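Hi, here's the filled form for the chain we discussed.

Project: internal
Contact: R.S.
Residues: 300
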Amino acid sequence: MNPMQGQICLVTGANAGIGKQTARELAQRGATVVLVARNRERGEAARAEIAAGEHSVELLLADFSSPASIRAMTEAFKARHDRLDVLVNNAGVYLMKREETADGLEMTFAVNHLGYFMTTLLLWDRLLAARSARVIVLASDAHRQAKLNFDDLQNRHKYAGFRAYAQSKLANVLFAYELDRRRGDAPITINAVHPGFVASNFGRNNGGVAGLFMTRVVPLFAKTVVEGAATSVYLASSPEVAGISGQYFTNGRAVKSAPQSYDRAAAERLWTISEELTGLRLPNLALPDERRENGGHTDL
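And the returned structure, exactly as it came back:
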């Protein structure tokens, strides 16, 4: 029997790169995998490719710059599934020039942070229903170069692509740690991941020198997508990490993240701002009866 037989996994940004490879390997382990992609044609191509091995693969569409689109995607998932065993928040962007969403938010912050925040909170009830769920947050060691400027979270002044990206990755780590603190007795683990510098399609949407660098130079010394997806797959599937939560992983092991990522005040402030921008709160859902009778304790 495959190790993940019967489990349901959702992977965002799954039509290419690390997301696609993660979805492929989870499907090979027997899971039903739901791919989330922005483009239907590319998403269908990825779904067909992964499903070719007689694996169970579904596709949902979402534009992570659009709150309405994220809500529609999560509602579509809930209509199909009563639980979610693994959520891999993988979708992301790297933009050399500042762009805004339709709601006037800076695009990198909106997609890379608020997209994760919304997806996780909107699917919290399905994660809780799985009784032993795992949330994986794709961050990056770029967070080590960042500091959140709460006076300009939207990067309206002196925008720089790498700085905006690094700040969004710091937000990812702060989010993972704060969610772990707020989960209470919920049997859900949350961990952040640094996949490494990977030769994928990431960042190739930028034109000019930046796009050329990502296309021609990066593949010469970067990790392959298989190597880049390895830690996400490990956290999603391995019994060795069952119950481990609130950690930062790279190369298959937990390591210390940057000092600024442990700033509780910053994490709480970011959480409050994220609630205000999305209109979402972490659902205060009751545990299943048998856990409630056991004082809320679980096997995790």
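Let me know if anything looks off before we file it.
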